[in-house]
Structure formats: structure tokens, C-alpha cells
């Protein structure tokens, strides 16, 4: 019997194995626990912070996108939030989540303003109160499209419901758990579900137009792209009376209203990284 591709069976097997690489249960646990730790520790405290749980559909979605090795947000992500992270020579998942959360120092919850020139959207997604599902995938990429550094790991996390809804704050400030939704109980400052959750089917339907991310040129081994803002689902008031159609691309930033270039991560994870692209 001949295989139509003409490739020997052993090659096909290896390819399949390589593509099926994904995070281990332990690694998923690190990512999930990291998120819930930072969510439980927000300051000022949150009245409505849901506990996150792992979602295998989001995981499969994130893994499939990670396989593509692209340094840009997934244009097919629909109503899912997304954080990206790239690192070499190893992938430190605890560090990745810590780094996203570390943008907290640039974010003013009172004013919902991010320090100009900085990014806050990874942080606001991590602590977005009603985001209660997360799934991530990772891939070792010899070349990531959009990053000059070679041989990096790419981490993709998708979230549901998505955070960073324009004009909204990540969470309601006030006494911990004082506004947990029905059916949830307070455990360690997080509103935890009392029933086993099922994967929401709405995750799979793409409904919103998502903005184009900014082009990035990272210069270090740990990098993350600008977050994109999800437009509000309510009807938007037109801001112009001109006769041309509204742009389908909303402002791609969280708070300052202007696209921001990639910001360097000041914390080098490993002193050993040999990466100085432009
Ligand atoms: C946030 O901004 C408000 C108004 O400008 C300011 O009073 C407050 O001190 C800021 N908070 C932090 C933590 O910087
Ligand atoms: C850098 O990494 C290489 C292998 O990746 C290792 O042999 C070497 O000891 C490391 N150097 C430092 C300073 O960590």
C-alpha cells in the first residue's frame, strides 16, 4: 500500500507526535494557580472576583494557535481574551503569569488609566473579575513570526468571557466577595462555583470584531504583544458625523487611546539569554 504523500510512515508519526506536544497537567496547574493567586490578592480588594477554572476547549484553541508560532493576536479568537508570552531558552510559566500581573504597578484602578508608554492589558485580563475560564497552550518555535530571536517558547492563554472591555474596570473595588454572583461562595477572597462548571458553548461563536494589534519589535527574550481591547457589546455612539463608514478597527489600547509599541520587560528571567534583536 502506498501513502499518497509519498512520505515514509515513520516521518508521519514523528510529525504527529511533535504537533501533539502540549502543557503537562503540572504546568497547567501552575498557570491556573498563578492566576487565582493574583486574583485573590488584588489591592484594593474585589467584591466580585470569580475563581478561574481550566477549560479544555480554550486549551485546545490556544494550543492550536501556539503551534503556528506567530507573534500577534489570533484574529480568529472571537469572544475570547488572549495573553501571549515568549521566552528563551526555557519557558518559566510561573514567571510568565507573574510578569503579566506585574503590569499592576502601571495601572490606576481609580482612573482606569495605564501609565503612558506602558502596558496594562495583560494585568487587567489576569484580574478581570468575570473571566472565569482559562486555557493555554505552548510551543517551542525555532522561529516565531514577528520576533527575530530564534528558538523561543511561545505561550498562548485564552480567556472566557474576555476581559479588557473598553470603558470597564477589571473588577469592583470593595469588601472581598461582597458581590459574588448567585451560586458562588467565597473561598480565599474568590467567588468559587459550588457546582461543576460546564464549558460554555458561546466560546466557540465569534461575534465581535476585534482590533488589529500593533506591530511589535521585541528586543529581549521575554516579550509580550500589546493587548487589544474588546469593544463593548452595547451599541456605540458614533463619534463622527462624516459620511464614511466607521472603522472596524477600534483603538487598540486599554486606557490611553493610542497604539503603543511593545514595551521592554525590565525583568530578565535568565541572565543567560543571548538575545538582542534590533
Ligand atoms: C490614581 O489616580 C488618582 C487620580 O489622579 C490619584 O488620586 C491616585 O493617587 C492614583 N492612585 C494611585 C495608586 O496612583
Ligand atoms: C548558559 O547556558 C548554557 C547552556 O544553555 C550553560 O552551559 C551555561 O552554563 C549557562 N551559563 C550561565 C552563566 O548560566
TrEMBL record:
SCP domain location: 26-167
Matching Gene3D superfamilies: CAP
GO CC term, one of those recorded: extracellular region
Any GO molecular function: peptidase inhibitor activity
Family of this protein: Belongs to the CRISP family.
Function: May inhibit cardiomyocyte growth.
Keywords, alphabetical: Glycoprotein, Protease inhibitor, Secreted, Signal
CDD domains xref list: CAP_PI16_HrTT-1
Subunit structure comment from the entry: Interacts with PSP94/MSMB.
Species, as recorded: Anas zonorhyncha
Domain of life of the native organism: Eukaryota
Composition-biased stretches (Low complexity): 197-219, 228-240, 263-278
Protein name: Peptidase inhibitor 16
Region annotation Disordered: where it falls in the sequence: 197-278
Pfam family, one: CAP
